[in-house]
Amino acid sequence: MTDVQYLTNWFTPKISDHDAVYSTSSISDRRLRVIRRDGVQLSIAPIRTETLTPPLVEAILREDEATIICLVPKTAHYLWSARERANELGSDVQTMSEVFWSMAEDDPQGFLSKDVDSTRRILGQHSRVQQVQMVCESSMTLIRKGGMASVTVSVEYGYEFGEESLVKALGRHPGVDVVLNSNPSGRATSAALEHAEHAGVRLLSLAELMGVINNP
């Protein structure tokens, strides 16, 4: 698999420092075993790839089982369909941040970034939204009722959401209609708002997006 690089040796000392982790040990150069302080054991496959797809998930799990396939680089993506395929095969796909948060969960599988998960849940309850379709780990498409156009949203998080943050978001999620700052205390700078207007996207808070969804 030339599209996947394993980062087991690099990842092991990182996860070993987690407060919930009792011990780690090498299974192979592509897997490590983690034993949590509560006795839960899991195997993790830490990888680097630009975009994790269902075929890559299948190839990784053909080599050996894994409780979680961990996508390490912050700039990388996993397609939601890749995560669904991993679930079908008894595994899961998470970002490195999600893996670290999931260590405190009763069941580490199935954990999704809290910012993304809460946004998905709230938007899914909107009276105009028929369905929320996840695209990747932090973007989703809102299928609206009554034949209204769908809206694709990138979920970001920042306090002062500046032009640089917007450029990074658009680079990671080209083609979105809305860049959402999910931080309820966050604010967008004037430069970011101007850039968004020129780029043909909306830079909104969750409250603002809830209102915009009502419009055709």
From TrEMBL:
<protein>
    <submittedName>
        <fullName>Uncharacterized protein</fullName>
    </submittedName>
</protein>
